[in-house]
Amino acid sequence: MRIFLFLFTLISAPLLFAQQAIIIDGDFADWADLPILVTDPAQDEHDTDWFGDGLPQPIARKNSDVDILEAKFTHDQESLYAYVKSRGIVGRTSREADGQKAGRYYFIVTIDVDNNDSTGYPLQEGNYWPNSTGYDMNMEIEFYDGTFNTGHYIHHDFMNEAELTAGAADLANHVIRLGPGTYENYLQWVVFPDTSFVEVSDRGPVVQGIITVAVSPDGHEAEMKAPMWGFFWDAEGVPIVKLGNTIDISFSLEGSGELSESAIEAGYTGTKSIWASDTADPIVGYRLTDHWTLVEDDDASIPAALGLEQNYPNPFNSSTILRYSLDKPSYVDIKVVNLSGQLVTKLWDRQENAGVHQVVWDGTDASGRNVASGIYLAVLQTKEAQHVRRMLLVR
Q1: Cβ neighbourhood burial of 83 (10 Å; 0-12, 13-18, 19+)
Q2: pTM for this one?
Q3: Which of 2, 50, 136, 256 has its CA at a distance of 20 to 30 angstroms from the CA of residue 96?
């Protein structure tokens, strides 16, 4: 069964997707507490020319390397992070050094950066399945001839060659204009830390910039980091991707498949391409919430030195940490309530000294039973004031 993640609608309670500290190093322990936002069925890989051939849906292919099983996504103040788990080996390609054809493989995160389906293009135009619409830009990894080739950004909002030419002129000034687009018309570039960039094409020379990737030792997991500023700015200088935005996200794996099961069955032994891809259902309504400058206090008169920080990680599926600061010794009551205001559990009820403290909630109620997935409120109460933070539990 495919699982969609939709934006929750709650009056004065935005859905909070928080950052988990992620290091792109091939050790995936730092992803463990983040929820699986999308699951995808095994063995649903398909061809990559079905739409162009006028077919109503794809033709099945066998390529376990591109078969998505799970996807996760998170962010921090500066970057977007994507995780994917595959049934096969992420990034595996045939190599000319082995007497084979140089193969290609793509780890693709396609983004509706303005949460607007009237801009961008529909996925089916790129022969992806299932279809969804409004995708403007990609953060993407290309593996080629057995190695990581580029980590690049892509802009798809062009309807024809004239618009593409104008877009290239804008890109030279780091400007991105959003509008309707097609899959066939796009710009693709690698960005460097000094803000310079170079336009690239598939199978081009090895060029590596600020987008980074790592694959697990067994090859079944991959993680990608793309700094937000690499998506550049609009004509007014506003970042295209920034904290506060709501975006839609689609994950795809795609490969030329010289080493795939379909190629082996055909007897090609690495010498001929049999393209295949797999696309997961989209993550809809992901909020790039600012947990670092956003204040959500219920009482604006709360002293600056008294506060309850946003829980971390958030969302969480096992336990989460609540840090709080006291400007003077105080009697502290910290509890978790549901959205109806009913008590779930009491975490702290004692006198505390001034300073910074923390408490852990393990997602259980007062009886020690696991509570259901959903939004809960952490409430810190002293004699002087009250702080409230919203937490998302995803099991």
Answers
A1: buried
A2: 0.73
A3: 50
